[in-house]
Structures are given as structure tokens and as C-alpha cells.
Input
Amino acid sequence: MLFLLPVLLSACSDNQPKLTPSAVAARQISTEGSAFIGDGGRDQARQAAMDAAIAEASEQLKRKNVAPTLISDIKVVDEWQEGGVYHVQILAVVSEKQLCTSSYRKKIVATAFPIVTTDQISGTESQDLYGGIPREINNRLMESGDFIGRNFTNTVLYSRPDMAPDILPSSNYSGSSVIDIARRQDAQFVLSGVIRDFKIESGEYLRGSGVWAEIKAATRDLVGRRSIGIDVYVHDGFTGALLFQHRYSDSILGDVSLPAGYTVGSERFNATPAGHKIDQIIHEASDDIHRVFGCYPFASRVTQVVGDRIVIAAGAQDKVKAGDRFKVYPAVSNAAGNGAAIMESLGVLTITEVSTNSAQGTLDVESQKLRVHPGDWVKSSSAP
Output
């Protein structure tokens, strides 16, 4: 028996999950939230209570001065009703790294990153930055296995890049361009951004006159300095809300040029000092987006309603499988006409058939099925 004990203990330990350094460093915050049960019913009150609990967890992080630390997973540990008030207790796992595995792959569509000051990129330099930066962020997200990327990088959301993330409506269209692009691409999220700064700081190399000044001017691309600032945004494709905003800044020293024909993400692009810095920003931005949205609730659109069958624009490639259940929400615009209003769920859709790009099922509330229309959306019931 004494001989077998170490063997049994070893076998048990092999079956235990291995804790990564980030998991060991992770912390947990337990908070509660509550909301009155109004006309929206228990579902809406439950979501409002969860939002309040998550907001309290975020506030605790701010008070503890751990700004780099993000909430990476939310678990509901208890919920109850007292009179007309619904209460939720959550356990928020916080860490610098993503700790949870996404149940579904979420679709994200990437749009172009225009530059604020157009003359900061000359005609002799690579013109691939505008589409290449969002394309490579999308590629990195797809490599994680938690996202399906769609590239729409010939489209610019910002007619005034200097005003981003504010999107100025066009004269002939009063709706939301974010929601329009997301609907056309069947995407849950819309990735956008602007190149805020890409200026060559060459003034110190051009002082003086004569031959020496000309030599310094000729070598500025070899010994120069170039500032770089890229703003990255992620919008919700159903409501148009801005969910993520971050500015990535750095400085390039040495050869600050990016020759024409160099493609973002290519080996020769990354081999240049400027390309190397941009590649670092791409990696950092994709990691941040994955950390924030990797465990975000999954959502998709209703594409067809045939009899009692409801078809959604997500299938096996999105990790949807038979037996999955999603809440169905009507796509009702808010008063401004630029996003979806928060509405009560029409019921729960249970998936019965799955193909590559679509799935179908039936609604649990028979009386509500006639209220479901193409363009409505479904959402997983997992927190947050």
C-alpha cells in the first residue's frame, strides 16, 4: 500500500488542470448587483443586476489601482428575488491574461484605418498601412481560434479621421454605418481605427545650411526618428455602441522609411525598424481585443423564419451545435434610429440542425414565434 500511494497521488495530480503563471496570479472579486423588476420582466432585471455587479467589480479594480488588469471571466454564483427586486452575485476573475475558453467563435469585420494627416505617408512609401494594419489584427484574432474575421478594408468609417471615434453621418444616409456593415457581413463586432500620428521628426537633422545640411537631409531616413500613434476601436454590430478604444504609441529610430510595395505582415516589412514597431502594435492590439472579447457573449442574426423554424447566420464554423440555446431579441431601432434598443427577450431558441454557416431551431414560446423576423438577433445566455 505504501508503494502504491505515491503512484496513485501521481496519477491524480496528472488529471488536475495545470495552472499557468497567469492563472496563479489571477484574482477573484465577488460583487453583488440588484435591479427592480419592471415592465421588462425578470430577464431584463437580471441583466441589469448583472451589469450593476460587473460595474462594481470594475470600480473595485480602479480603487485598487490595477488599471492594466482586466476582468477576463464572469461567473454567476447566486441569484434570487426579494419582492420586486432581483439580485445577482457574481465572481469576477481578473488577470492580465485571458483565462477562459470561448464557447463560440465570434465574427468580426475589419474596416480601413485612415491617416489623420495625409502628407505623413508619402507616395514613395507603402500604401498598405490603411488596410494592412486592420487585416493583420484580424488575422491574429483568427489564429486564436475564438474569432472569424471578415476583411472589409476598402471601406472607411471615418470621413473625418481627426474626429474619430465620432462617425459623422453622410448626407444621404441617416442610419448607423457600423450596424449596416455588420449586417452585411453577418458580424458581431466591427473593428476600425485611425493612424493618428506617423510623423518623421527630422527637424534636428535639417538645421544649418550648405553641404552639411544637405548630407544630414539625405541621411535623415537612416538616422531619423518617427513617431507612431494608432487608435483602435471595436463597435458592437447590433447596437452600434463603442465597446473598445485604445491608443498605441511608439517611436521608430533609425531607418524610418517603409518602401512602396512592402506588405504589412510580410517578412521584409517586419524586418524594417518601422515595420517591426507596427507589427508590435498589431500584436498588442489583437491581444487586448482577444482578452476583452474572447469570453464576451456570442450573438448572431436571424436570417429566415420558415413556419416554426428559425434560421440564424451561424453554424458549425462558429462552434454552434445541436442542443445549444440562445435568447431571441427583436431588432427594434432606438428613437435616434442609429442602434438597437434594449428589448425583452422573445423566448429561447433551441438549435436542432446545424450546417457549416447556418443553424436552425424552434422557439420555446409558441405564441411568440410570429413576432420573430429576419434581422432579429440571438444571444448566448452566458455572462456578462
User: Anything to note?
Assistant: The CA atoms of residues 325 and 350 lie 5 Å apart. The chain has three domains: 4-95, 106-293, 299-380.
